[in-house]
Design brief:
The chain is an alpha+beta fold. It is built from twelve helices and 18 strands. A hairpin with a 6-residue loop joins strand 8 and strand 9. It starts with about 45 loop residues before the first strand and ends in a 6-residue tail after the last helix.
């Protein structure tokens, strides 16, 4: 028997249970003995945006709690924000959170380089909750009308983010090779990023792909890297929703949206910014690193500082032979910080602008998200004001998971539910489950 009490069994996946409205009870609480009910995102009354390879992404806003100090927070952020040139600051803001916010940058570039490409960033046909009810955080640089106007005359209308309610995004690295299409692939990387404006902090939690958990709407336990495949096989476009529901159900934290990046997009982003610098105090030797063509090769890196191009940055982030998934998760977080540092260099902006078309081409066919353009911009503008000391990271490692061998001989990790809540509070704050 596994050394923890499993959740009640779910309906067999062949019956008529509707995904997104599970018939089984969802646990309740910030504590793991009584978790809170985690709602699947509700459908909106009207479509918010239509994407080129999908249906519609509906985005109903949950109510934002009132906060008396919102005006003071707003004024402090305005005072810190430089006057004018806000679109350039969004590029610098992108550096604050690696790949996730670089997508904001790329969406700016689609406006500069292609007026009619707003619908080009693909998304799955799934309903997701919107950013909370707006309270203006735009500052003088955006103008009173809430617009950003580019030199070519293009105007972006912004519905301001409220700056109060938590925004949580599931970041997924898809194990999809260049010759493959669609979303029916296992996730190679899974991170939970949460912005808490009340404390002006950001949390980043790495989730090991071998974590053995319940997947809502599917029978039995599965690795947490399987929801994308299971959802897409059940209904094309359903994978992101099943992935979100799985994380919500097992970590008791509401997830607002998702960003999915495949290997090609990652390589293109790193190459476009001129590579990244990483420093390690241990040697890496992987005799069986999986190649893009499902073969194997040797990847090695000695202790010290290295400048990596896109392909080697991907190898650095993905390799796990010689250590474990937890060290691998730390390298993935280190890679995000390295991307941030590279873009934040004083001499980095001109080169970044020159690479705008390349960055966009890398993203448009290889990144999927339920976020709209306006939301990506607002997140970028907000994150530039978050100090690096307020970015907290964590990994679900052996302190929070127990190795286990299944009846079929598979090596997995069982979540230690009595301890994971403590880790979640350390990374995201004590009110993460609210």
């Amino acid at each position: 028997m596994p050394p923890f009490e499993a959740h009640p069994k779910h309906p067999n996946e062949n019956d008529s249970t509707v995904i997104g409205e599970p018939s089984f009870p969802v646990p309740d609480a910030p504590t793991w003995s009584q978790q809170p009910t985690v709602q699947s995102p509700a459908p909106a009354q009207t479509p918010a945006f239509v994407y080129r390879n999908s249906g519609q992404t509906s985005l109903p806003p949950p109510a934002a709690p009132p906060r008396d100090s919102a005006a003071r927070l707003h004024q402090r952020r305005i005072n810190r924000r430089a006057k004018g040139g806000e679109w350039a600051w969004v590029i610098i803001a992108a550096a604050l959170f690696g790949v996730a916010v670089l997508i904001s940058l790329s969406m700016f570039f689609v406006l500069r380089w292609s007026r009619d490409a707003q619908a080009a960033l693909p998304t799955a046909a799934v309903a997701f909750s919107e950013l909370p009810t707006p309270v203006d955080l735009r500052g003088d640089g955006l103008g009173s009308a809430g617009r950003i106007q580019f030199t070519d005359g293009t105007i972006v209308e912004l519905d301001p983010w409220d700056g109060e309610s938590r925004l949580t995004i599931l970041l997924i690295g898809l194990d999809r090779r260049p010759q493959e299409t669609g979303l029916a692939f296992r996730t190679d990387t899974m991170m939970l990023m949460s912005i808490d404006p009340k404390t002006n902090s950001v949390g980043l939690l790495s989730i090991p792909r071998d974590l053995y958990v319940d997947i809502p709407g599917f029978y039995g336990l599965h690795r947490i890297n399987e929801p994308m495949v299971l959802g897409e096989l059940r209904e094309p476009g359903l994978g992101p929703q099943i992935a979100i529901e799985t994380v919500q159900y097992n970590l008791a934290m509401r997830v607002n949206n998702y960003i999915i990046v495949d290997f090609k997009a990652f390589i293109g982003i790193v190459d476009a910014i001129g590579g990244i610098d990483v420093t390690i105090d241990y040697n890496i030797y992987d005799s069986s690193y999986p190649t893009m063509n499902y073969g194997y090769e040797v990847f090695s890196l000695k202790a010290g500082t290295h400048h990596l191009d896109g392909a080697n940055a991907l190898r650095f982030a993905r390799t796990r032979h010689g250590d474990n998934d937890f060290r691998r998760a730390q390298r993935q977080q280190q890679t995000l910080y390295a991307i941030r540092d590279q873009v934040a260099r004083p001499d980095g902006l001109p080169g970044l602008l020159a690479q705008a078309p390349l960055i966009w081409e890398s993203l448009r066919a290889n990144v999927y998200t339920g976020l709209r353009l306006e939301e990506l911009v607002q997140v970028g503008l907000y994150l530039k004001d978050v100090p690096s000391s307020s970015i907290k990271t964590g990994v679900i490692d052996y302190n929070y998971a127990v190795p286990y061998t299944t009846a079929s001989g598979a090596q997995v990790l069982l979540p230690n539910r009595s301890k994971i809540g403590t880790l979640m509070a350390e990374v995201f704050g004590a009110d993460y489950a609210q």
